[in-house]
Amino acid sequence: MLGFAEEWIGTGILNANYAEWKISRRVLAPAFSTEMLSKYVNIFKKNSSALVDRFETAADSGEIINIWEDVIKANVDSIVEITIGVAMQGTEGKGKEFSDALIEAAQSVAKQVITPWLHPCFIYNTYLKLTGKSKFIHQLHALPTKILQDKLNEIKNGENTSENVHSSKAIIDQLIKGSLLESNYTETRMRDELTHIILAAIETTGLNLCFSLLMLAIHQDIQQKVHQEIEELFKDNDTLTADHLFNGLKYMEQCIKETSRVFSQVVVTSRRTHKECTLKDNMVIPANTFVVPLLFLASKDPDLYENPRKWDPDNFSEQAVQNRPKISFMSFGYGPRSCIGVRYTMLSVKTQMVYILRNYHLSTNIKELTKEHVKADLFVRSTIGFPIKFTKRKSLNPEDF
């Protein structure tokens, strides 16, 4: 399935074979450590504050708006600054082109997945040229390539020391540092790794946040519990910290995980068996078999979840989790090749939810989101958008959080 995206993202951690994936994981793991994730919190906070500001007009008018585009903009701003060290807010030129190309890439890959006649590569490439979309591939690669070249030249000229790289918040610096220890880890491979991370983060964080906020708008009692948890956290200290995000807001975390279960952000994954496997029902999967686990259905087993299609954060209470096998929740994969960015997603979504719910009460004209309201390509999406009404809770300055 991920082969569909190769025209845009090349080869990296999402689609590399096992041997190459181990190198990607080894190089990228430090960028997603607790220490590095803590450095990203101020970027999350800055862009969450900007997102709150964008919702102010809708709050003043009392209209219901589809929040998707605003949320995607905020998530593009965060992940681009975190990966390549470029702040998108207020930028034009190359920065704006790169941002537009990211959104176009996600849309074009999704269209190829759900359009059978676009599956053959030569037809898809022709389609991109005829529609003028091929220019976005160049735009997608241009900015990371330039920044990589600049940083590699600094290292070559002795201007960028290992100390500077270690202290940087940008993943690109951690990537360069790790790549220096790996042979044949080319500049193109590093560029592709960055593109993989950016595109995956935009979709997973954006969709999770939008679905979570819509569920809270529908379930007013649960929204109230999350808001009370937030206010309790800030009772004695009005500053949002990395410790709050890692170790606090447990009920909010249950909501986010339940959203990942019901509206699994990744529909499928793929693996190739390297040896013969025997399943519990004695079914045998031969070695070298291409296997496609349906992650969207894996967490809908009625033997594991009493009402599997109902959105219920209590499914992730401490007791409920202890009573289920770990592999019952696979929205971010499972085992060694599980998503490297799962904690990034959790921190990003938590930060945005804190800012939004401290400022606004959410409501909607949707009484229930049913299976008829969702569709799937590479990701699960809403067919009706994410219609939410924002009502100001009180006058606050988001920068003070």
The profile of the biggest β sheet is:
3 strands, antiparallel
- State the shape: globular
Count the helices. How many? Answer: 18
The ordered string of helix (H) and strand (E) elements is: HHHHHEHHHHHHHHHHEEEEHHHEEEE
Residue ranges: pLDDT <50 for 5 or more in a row? 162-167
Quaternary organisation of the protein chains: single chain
First-to-last CA distance: 41 Å
Helix content: 40-55%
Describe it.
There is one protein chain. The chain has 401 residues and is mainly alpha-helical. The chain contains 18 helices and nine strands. The protein has helices spanning 6-9, 18-28, 34-39, 41-54, 56-61, 68-84, 94-114, 121-130, 134-156, 162-167, 171-179, 187-218, 220-233, 242-247, 250-262, 295-298, 318-322, 342-359, and strands at residues 64-66, 271-272, 277-278, 284-285, 290-291, 360-363, 374-376, 380-382, 387-392. The strands form four sheets. A three-stranded antiparallel β-sheet has the order 1-9-6. The longest helix is centred in the middle third of the chain and has 32 residues, at 187-218. It is globular and about 55 Å long.
